[in-house]
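Dear Dr. V.,

Thank you for agreeing to look over these. As mentioned in my earlier message, I'm a first-year student in the group and I'm still getting used to reading structure tokens, so any feedback on how I've presented them would be very welcome. I ran two proteins. I've put each sequence directly above its structure. The first is here:
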Amino acid sequence: MIDFELEPQVVERAKFFRSVAEHLMRPISRHYDEHEHEEPRRFIETTWQGAARERQGGADAGAERKSAPRNLLTTIMTEELCWGDAGLFLSIPGPGLGGAAVSAAGTAEQKERFLRRFKDGEPKWGAMAITEPGCGSDSAAVTTTARREGDYWVLNGTKIFCTSGMRALEKSDGFVVVWATVDKNAGRAGIKPFVVDHGTPGASIIRVENKLGIRASDTAAILLDNCRLPLDHVLGSPQVEPSGGFKDVMATFDATRPIVAAMAIGVGRAALDFVRDFLSQQQVEIRYAIAPTRMTALERDFIEMETELEAARLLTWRAAWMLDRGLRNNLEASMAKAKAGAAVTRVTQKAVEIMGPLGYSRKYLLEKWMRDAKINDIFEGTQQINLLIIARRILGYTSKELR
């Protein structure tokens, strides 16, 4: 039985993350939206030091954290921090999507070797590079190649829209997990993940994007020009097997799509809370107890916005709950991502509409949240791709049968 009554330690952690969002993120949110490529250095150092204190906390605190459901806690943390600022959330140092790929595809030894660097030292980032100029939603069509030359893998290709790619490659001891094909004739089975460390010759940043939203985060294009990696930098087995390859890509997304869904919910909740507070200041009451036919259009819109976000949250918590229990959640992860991406787009646009000129004005953060919202409907699999995955899982079709 699924029970979403949160444990006391999870509730306390949620309050802590909400405090971080309110006191560390909101005050600098507009500045780093308007200064896209300026690094929020003080925020980065504060969050890195805070994470270090968490890791070095007392035995009792550690025992409490171990008993908490890790993935569910991550989604709750993500929602609270993205209520503060989604772009700043993505700039927080840590293993990130690269770490998720290592966890999904790496051996036990590789997980220890590549992830232990995030336990101390200077701030560092992990990132994942899969999208290419000619390959977006169809991740199985990657053209970046990896060929073996003696004791090295040699990678060639271009990756784009890599979240935290610049910080991962240009900052101390970070890495990017690059998906490349070792055998084009093998199709999906030939795709393998490779860890490209900071400072690796042949890996360079060729562009940092100017974006509509999440501007505090960096989104980079990476050139791999005869990039040479040690043989043990391929995650998992280098052998091409029918059951491998693209399966590891999807396993990574199964873990990260609930997090992206939680990001969307946090942004949507920020917009909803803003509208609620404004209406309260204007002494406008939302009458929940009356029949829908007696409600004003504003009341119906507001309640529908609340309903959309709550439905997305429950789907997200279910996907995380399943992951915590070692259950396969690829259908549920895509459901959460699809619902939350669509919901946050509608909710933030409706919030701007309700507020009229005040919602469109840069005086408030509402217009920023509308811009930040849309990416959640695009990255980690577009709305259309996730709906395709959902349909395939429910109807029992393969990707060849339902495209």
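The second protein is here, in the same arrangement:
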Amino acid sequence: MINKIKQFFETHKTFAEIFRFLIVGTIATLVDMFMMGVAMYFIQREIYPSFINVFINTPTPSTFATIMGTAIGFICGLIVNYVLSILFVFNEKGKSKSTQGFIIFTVLSVIGLGLNMLGMYLCFDLMHINQWVSKIIVTIVVLIYNYVSKRLILFKNKK
């Protein structure tokens, strides 16, 4: 069974890359959500009896705490994603390890951060969707944007 999976990924390189991207994305998302929780806890400590209450039996935080937590979590997750993408996800490094690559990565990331914060504002503040449900919805949208933009612009083949 393991040999069949390995053979599949060896013959279908794009699927293998997407699979690695999803694993790295999951790790980065966990970092993102944890750091969002840490930030929200410290910004609005008075509404949380303990840190675990940021995630379980959550009181409704302010928009400021949610947006700032989103930004801090996103930046932490982004750093993890960048490092792991270079190390494990993309075989073709493209321009990613150059100064120009870092600038491109930063611009693409700022766009992703903007999409993330806009999505959180729309879902949480305007549509009144729970902050964690909002986070999951927005994370899926930004994950797709991140893969496509990084793959097509930053980690593209040199051909």
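From my reading of the second output: The chain has five helices and no strands. Helices lie at 2-11, 13-43, 63-89, 99-126, 131-154. Does that match how you would interpret it?

Kind regards,
E.
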